[in-house]
Specification:
Layout: E1 12-15, H1 25-37, H2 45-48, H3 56-67, H4 73-88, H5 99-109, E2 112-117, H6 121-130, E3 140-142, H7 155-163, E4 171-175, H8 178-186, E5 190-193, E6 209-210, H9 214-220
Parallel strand pairs: 1-2, 1-4, 2-3, 4-5, 5-6
Helix pairs in contact: 1-4, 3-4, 4-6, 5-9
Length: 226
């Protein structure tokens, strides 16, 4: 079994999606500006970065306050999801390095894996299908659709652990954003921060463990059966 400090026995590994399993943030940024363009606005990437990992409705509420955009935040979020899926159909999305090896090792060891994301379920399903990860990650929790509160609140992590029939303390969360780390910690899940390779969050110190890559996490889990 995994060597300390990981939970023993390890019952589940709960993965953030955007920036952790796939590099999807450029598409989220592009789809955001596709919606803003209809109102004559554009968001610079430096202003987009602080919202990475946050849920859709607070994000759009902030943009409405900034740009004076009409409509309901949830409706704007739905428009962005549609734009995101259109863009997703035009690109080739690959799992980030180490993802397939890690998921296959977990599967071989009988350790459950799940996706815990702030994204809408349609976007989650689309990204996993595009990256060829659907079969390896059938259990998915959307903070947008499945929970009353999304990250940084613990609801989505608590829901994922419940679906695995596992105590939160027997699971590992893998995150790349401050809001995701906060959500996992609040749920009582052992939290591993793996900064995104393309948009690293500068402050992930609250996590129990910070690693450079998923390959390094796989090495730390070398006690798992092969």
């Amino acid at each position: 079994m995994p060597a300390p400090p990981f939970p023993q026995p390890l019952r589940g590994v709960l993965f953030d999606l955007d920036g952790t399993l796939v590099d999807s943030e450029p598409l989220h940024y592009a789809s955001t500006n596709r919606i803003l363009a209809a109102f004559g606005h554009r968001l610079e990437y430096t202003d987009f970065k602080p919202f990475i990992g946050s849920s859709d409705e607070p994000f759009w509420s902030a943009l409405q306050a900034r740009f004076g955009i009409p409509g309901r935040p949830r409706e704007l979020a739905a428009q962005r999801t549609a734009a995101f899926l259109d863009l997703l159909a035009e690109v080739r999305m690959e799992p980030l390095p180490g993802v397939l090896s890690l998921l296959r090792r977990l599967h071989a060891a009988g350790v459950a894996a799940a996706v815990v994301s702030s994204s809408p379920r349609d976007a989650i399903d689309g990204m996993l299908a595009a990256a060829g990860l659907s079969a390896l990650l059938p259990l998915r929790v959307s903070g947008h659709d499945d929970c009353a509160r999304s990250k940084p609140f613990p609801d989505c992590y608590l829901a994922a652990a419940a679906r695995l029939r596992a105590a939160p303390a027997s699971c590992i969360a893998v995150e790349d954003s401050c809001s995701g780390v906060a959500a996992a910690l609040a749920a009582g899940v052992f939290t591993v921060a793996v900064p995104s390779r393309t948009h690293p969050d500068p402050d992930l110190r609250a996590a129990h463990l910070r690693l450079c890559s998923l390959e390094e996490l796989l090495e730390r889990l070398d006690g798992l059966p092969r």
